[in-house]
Amino acid sequence: MRQLSKIKTVAFVGTLVSVMITAGCSSAPLRTEASTSGIRAAEEVGATDVPKASLYLKLAKEELELAQALAKKGERERAVSMLSRSEADSQLAIALSREDAERAEAHAAEARVRQLRQDNNLPNE
């Protein structure tokens, strides 16, 4: 009888420790650094000035806010998922901004080539 009581006590303590560890892990702060820095980087490369990039930047910001709200409600899994979406959208905003800048640079180079050909009386191709 005494042996059975010790087993129950050990099982109870083990369960209690497991519950405390699980609760501690779920209350760990949400890691928003990657999403925040992605949003900042998108703003720095000019995503607000490129219509498509601006849309994804706005989505990234909204998803970050939603992730933080979900974390406060205790919905950590959904919050982490929303953070992933925010990071992806901020990276897409960066890529679209760079693409736009590279396209503008290519058009400017083409215009310079046309002008040089015209100045040197060469046919445009």
Give structural notes.
The chain folds into two domains: 1-30; 31-119, Substrate Binding Domain Of Dnak, Chain:A, Domain 2, CATH 1.20.1270. Helix 3 packs antiparallel against helix 4. It has 125 residues and is mainly α. It is rod-shaped and about 70 Å long. The protein has helices spanning 2-26, 33-44, 51-73, 76-119. Helix content is 83%, strand content 0%.
Shape: rod-shaped
Q: Strand count, sense and closure of the main sheet?
A: none
The CATH architecture name of the largest domain reads Up-down Bundle
Mean pLDDT: 84
The SS-based structural class is mainly alpha
Percent helix among the residues? over 70%
Count of β-strands: 0
Classify the beta-strand content into a percent band.
Answer: under 5%
The total tally of domains equals: 2
> Would you state the CATH class of the largest domain?
Mainly Alpha
| Ends apart, CA distance between termini | 98 Å
Counting DSSP H or I runs of 4 or more residues, the number of helices is 4
Q: What is the strand and helix layout of this fold?
A:
Blueprint: H1 2-26, H2 33-44, H3 51-73, H4 76-119
Brief overview:
This protein is an all-alpha fold and 125 residues long. 83% of the residues lie in helices and 0% in strands.
